[in-house]
Design brief:
173 residues; two-stranded parallel ribbon; 6 helices
Length: 173
Amino acid sequence: YEVIALDFQVMSTSSFESEQSFVTDFSGELLEAVDDFPGEIEKQLQEFADGSAKVTTLNALFKVISKWCGMLERPPVLIIDEVDTATNNQVFIDFLAQLRAYYLKRPMSATFQSVILAGVYDVLCFCSVVFWSPYAARTAAPNVLPMTSPVMIPFEDFPADSNMTKSSVPIFS
């Protein structure tokens, strides 16, 4: 797997004030977390990060991320620690909605194979907002797994009768 580990703890409150500021700061964090972006992808992310991009939206960011994910030899896994620092931020909810939308479009668009959201607090509250209800969160993303402590669980350790597959989106808290 190509693991991309980010920490929202380093993003300030202003990072979540607007879509543009989130895209700018998130792009900067991606550039720091990944050593070897292809030239065109690195250039586009750098333009987001330094504010010189003509369009700085989540949609534009996800198009670049999708293009990059399609270039990777190994399946990309996104890990975001301290997601609970982003609570009550509409921009973060919009970001989660984009993650979900691209995940559902995987047959047509490349994206992260898995997304792991980690934090001190239960991330189900984020899912209930993105998926509109706790019931919908469990049916639309049945692999949301609340845990009492951060634990990485290998895919092979999930019970065979669960819906967990290597292409599932586990969310850990």
